[in-house]
UniProtKB/TrEMBL annotation:
Keywords: Ammonia transport, Membrane, Signal, Transmembrane, Transmembrane helix, Transport. This is Ammonium transporter. It comes from Piscinibacter gummiphilus. The chain crosses the membrane at residues 66-88, 100-120, 165-187, 194-218, 238-267, 279-301, 313-333, 345-362, 368-388, 400-424, 444-468. It is found in: Cell membrane; Membrane.
Length: 500
């Protein structure tokens, strides 16, 4: 453990020093003027600033959009730390409470640093169909201290921009929470050092490429005429080129993380006593608090993905509101029918299931479509954590795959159904030159959505197997049995959550 931490610290120090040198070089006015176009989930800098003869021609961000995106970024941080941490922490036994909190907090912090060093560049700069390049390595070119100017990133609307640095911050929270979601699948028996090393590998080779494939494109203003459409499309990520719809991360976040978690549950192995002893959550009160913070924070996650304080954000906000409520009701009804009683844990899990399922659909479906998605997800994820879990036979400690995997797949596929204007959906932009809206046939769009799901499952699965194997060979995956029985709070961190 000490060797791993020392190695990580040394590596980050070296990278940080190199980044300072590169940032200083990029701060020259001529370097800032030639910043390459950078894409957002639907947004890239529309034109190279080098082509503008004067600074006055540079795009200007709307203060309302900037204020909203700062708030949205803060909301996503809240839904991770403390929201997800408390939700997970309440579900484990008291002897492992702090270990889960630590894994979430430190994983989130690690990924934010890696995002600033190279993750953002790999995900959101021009490269090829699978991965970006190094134009934004060490965040170079985002801010010119000499001129006091910021690079701009476009949004979904032509001529509308936000500071690219703000977009990078917003997306850093997505990368962070995605990796933290994985923690729940192998909670209570994995080495802390193994978690950190796995996250470095998985983030680099699974999260960044999937984010690039789903969300990178050249932005609306790049489509200046019909003659450039094919060339601009060819520069986008592979899944974006297919036409898959993922508003806020059904594939990138939930399915991606869920597959990694499931692989981890198999490769780390079952907890000592699994199937023989009762693994009762030690504080459903904290789990409820965490679920509530997740729900509130998710408005930033989904509505923030509109990248503007406009109509799309309003639609995503309301769909997130209603779909989650519908999923709570569905899970509670299903549980009452199955067991005769509806539980608080079930209701909280239903809320998360609804949030997961509406993520890819938030700005892509109509109001009633969102409620249907929530109801379907509530029942589907209830089956995921009961029937499917037994079929798979893995000790997915906190049901990461049952909720995030099943919910993410349901949401991704139903996005293809309810996006169509025939079912009161908003449709999609069929021509970015004119920004005209159209609808694909339901069957055609569902097939595109299915291809995106399958590629994500395979990609994350392969990367996860290799990454876990490397970690196992280098430092080992799980703690000794006696340490697991004593609890990871004491054995891994030397402290306890509660004193009697």
């Amino acid at each position: 453990m000490k060797k791993l931490i020392a190695t990580l610290a040394l590596g980050l120090a070296v990278l940080g020093f190199s980044g300072a040198v590169l940032a200083q070089a990029a701060s020259a006015p001529e370097a800032a003027a030639s910043v390459a176009a950078v894409a957002a989930p639907a947004a890239a800098s529309a034109a190279d600033a080098a082509s503008a003869p004067a600074a006055a021609a540079a795009p200007v961000a709307n203060k309302g959009d900037v204020a909203w995106m700062i708030v949205a970024t803060l909301l996503v941080i809240m839904m991770t730390v403390p929201g997800l941490a408390l939700f997970y922490g309440g579900l484990v036994r008291s002897k492992n409470m702090l270990s889960v909190l630590m894994q979430v907090l430190v994983t989130f912090s690690l990924i934010v640093v890696l995002w600033c060093i190279y993750g953002y560049s790999l995900a959101f700069t021009e490269g090829n169909s699978y991965i970006g390049g190094f134009d934004r390595l060490f965040m170079k070119g985002l801010f010119d201290p000499a001129a006091g100017t910021f690079a701009m990133a476009a949004t979904f609307s032509k001529g509308v921009y936000i500071p690219e640095l703000l977009f990078a911050a917003f997306q850093a929270t997505f990368a962070g929470i995605t990796c933290c979601l994985i923690v729940g699948a192998f909670a209570e028996r994995i080495k802390f050092s193994a978690v950190l090393l796995f996250m470095v590998l998985w983030f680099t080779f699974s999260y960044a490429p999937i984010a690039h494939m789903v969300w990178f494109w050249m932005g609306p203003d790049a489509y200046a005429s019909k003659e450039v459409v094919d060339a601009m499309n060819a520069k986008a990520g592979l899944i974006w080129q297919w036409g898959a719809l993922d508003f806020a991360g059904g594939t990138v976040v939930h399915i991606n993380a869920a597959v990694a978690g499931l692989v981890g549950a198999f490769m780390v192995g079952k907890r000592v006593g699994y199937g023989k002893e009762a693994f009762t959550p030690h504080s459903l009160t904290l789990t409820m608090v965490g679920a509530s913070l997740l729900w509130v924070g998710w408005f930033g996650f989904n509505a923030g993905s509109a990248l503007e304080a406009g109509n799309s954000a309003v639609l995503a906000f309301m769909n997130t509101f209603s779909a989650t409520a519908a999923a709570v009701l569905a899970w509670s009804i299903g549980e009452a029918l199955m067991r005769g009683k509806a539980s608080m844990l079930g209701a909280a899990s239903g809320a998360v299931a609804g949030l997961v399922a509406i993520t890819p659909a938030a700005g892509n479906v109509g109001l009633m479509g969102a409620i249907v998605i929530g109801f379907v997800a509530g029942f589907a994820c209830l089956w995921g954590v009961n029937g499917l879990k037994k079929m798979l036979g893995a000790d997915d400690s906190l049901d990461v795959f049952g909720v995030h995997g099943v919910g993410g797949i349901v949401g991704a596929l139903l996005t293809g159904v309810f996006n169509t204007q025939a079912l009161a959906g908003p449709g999609l932009v069929g021509d970015w030159v004119t920004a005209s809206v159209t609808s694909n046939g339901i069957g055609a769009q569902v097939w595109i959505q299915l291809k995106a799901v399958l590629l994500t499952v395979v990609w994350s699965g392969v990367v996860s197997v290799v990454a876990f194997k490397i970690v196992d060979l280098v430092i080992g995956l799980r703690v000794p049995e006696e340490e697991e029985r004593e609890g990871l709070d004491i054995t891994s961190h030397g402290e306890t959550a509660y004193h009697q």
